[in-house]
Amino acid sequence: MALPQKKYYRQRAHSNPIADHCFEYPARPDDYNWSTLFPKTIEQEQKNKQVEFLDVGCGYGGLLVTLSPLFPNNLMLGLEIRVKVSDYVNDRIQALRSQHPDQFQNIAVLRTNAMKYLPNFFHKGQLKKMFFLYPDPHFKKAKHKWRIINKWLLSEYAYVLAEEGIIYTITDVKDLHEWMVEHFVEHPLFERISDEELKSDIIVDKLYESTEEGQKVTRNNGDKYLAVFKRIPDGYNPN
């Protein structure tokens, strides 16, 4: 099975996350049949295995493919709102599984709206890592409410993220970087991880070049702004 060609899956880079799209979603996480996305892993290995890594707005799936062999025992899911792009990622994963039968069984993609339906798919404290790589900056002030990082959604991310879980963000837009850092720092359930601590994190280096958007920024000699945050335990009191 040949890998898909992006030229057949192109569509607009922007999508209105507030608009009503046609999505199917479960009433609660236990109602979703995850074996449809991870058939070999769940049906043959561990029936109760759950997604632990979540790439929100996964684009063409570069991060999933990069991290899959590094964390073979963790299920990873990419969320993508655009139809053709999510179709591409799914076809890419199926082709990789066909070419490498014992690999890439731990990654999958789901077309949905992360701003609306995360609690429908994930239990409290289920996720260990979340990724927001080059999210849509929605430059106009009137559209800042569309940004995937805002004070309301951060509480939702804190709900599905395990204590001590990590959120990775990277962007080439300085204003958006400052916006995300400000909102995370102001939120009582997150704290920023220092650059010194990040030196031992093998994932960090992969964030710069694994995605199509990151590679495009490199070709254009653009800047990349990284910020990583940790989920503070409930009831944590630094004093």
Automatic annotation (TrEMBL):
<comment type="similarity">
    <text>Belongs to the class I-like SAM-binding methyltransferase superfamily. TrmB family.</text>
</comment>
<keyword id="KW-0820">tRNA-binding</keyword>
<comment type="pathway">
    <text>tRNA modification; N(7)-methylguanine-tRNA biosynthesis.</text>
</comment>
<keyword id="KW-0808">Transferase</keyword>
<dbReference type="GO" id="GO:0106143">
    <property type="term" value="C:tRNA (m7G46) methyltransferase complex"/>
</dbReference>
<dbReference type="InterPro" id="IPR029063">
    <property type="entry name" value="SAM-dependent_MTases_sf"/>
</dbReference>
<protein>
    <recommendedName>
        <fullName>tRNA (guanine-N(7)-)-methyltransferase</fullName>
        <ecNumber>2.1.1.33</ecNumber>
    </recommendedName>
</protein>
<feature type="binding site">
    <location>
        <begin position="80"/>
        <end position="81"/>
    </location>
    <ligand>
        <name>S-adenosyl-L-methionine</name>
    </ligand>
</feature>
<comment type="function">
    <text>Catalyzes the formation of N(7)-methylguanine at position 46 (m7G46) in tRNA.</text>
</comment>
<feature type="active site">
    <location>
        <position position="136"/>
    </location>
</feature>
<keyword id="KW-0949">S-adenosyl-L-methionine</keyword>
<keyword id="KW-0819">tRNA processing</keyword>
<dbReference type="GO" id="GO:0000049">
    <property type="term" value="F:tRNA binding"/>
</dbReference>
<keyword id="KW-0539">Nucleus</keyword>
<dbReference type="InterPro" id="IPR025763">
    <property type="entry name" value="Trm8_euk"/>
</dbReference>
<dbReference type="InterPro" id="IPR003358">
    <property type="entry name" value="tRNA_(Gua-N-7)_MeTrfase_Trmb"/>
</dbReference>
<dbReference type="GO" id="GO:0005634">
    <property type="term" value="C:nucleus"/>
</dbReference>
<keyword id="KW-0694">RNA-binding</keyword>
<feature type="binding site">
    <location>
        <position position="133"/>
    </location>
    <ligand>
        <name>S-adenosyl-L-methionine</name>
    </ligand>
</feature>
<feature type="binding site">
    <location>
        <position position="57"/>
    </location>
    <ligand>
        <name>S-adenosyl-L-methionine</name>
    </ligand>
</feature>
<keyword id="KW-0489">Methyltransferase</keyword>
<dbReference type="GO" id="GO:0008176">
    <property type="term" value="F:tRNA (guanine(46)-N7)-methyltransferase activity"/>
</dbReference>
<dbReference type="Pfam" id="PF02390">
    <property type="entry name" value="Methyltransf_4"/>
</dbReference>
<feature type="binding site">
    <location>
        <begin position="113"/>
        <end position="114"/>
    </location>
    <ligand>
        <name>S-adenosyl-L-methionine</name>
    </ligand>
</feature>
<feature type="binding site">
    <location>
        <begin position="211"/>
        <end position="213"/>
    </location>
    <ligand>
        <name>S-adenosyl-L-methionine</name>
    </ligand>
</feature>
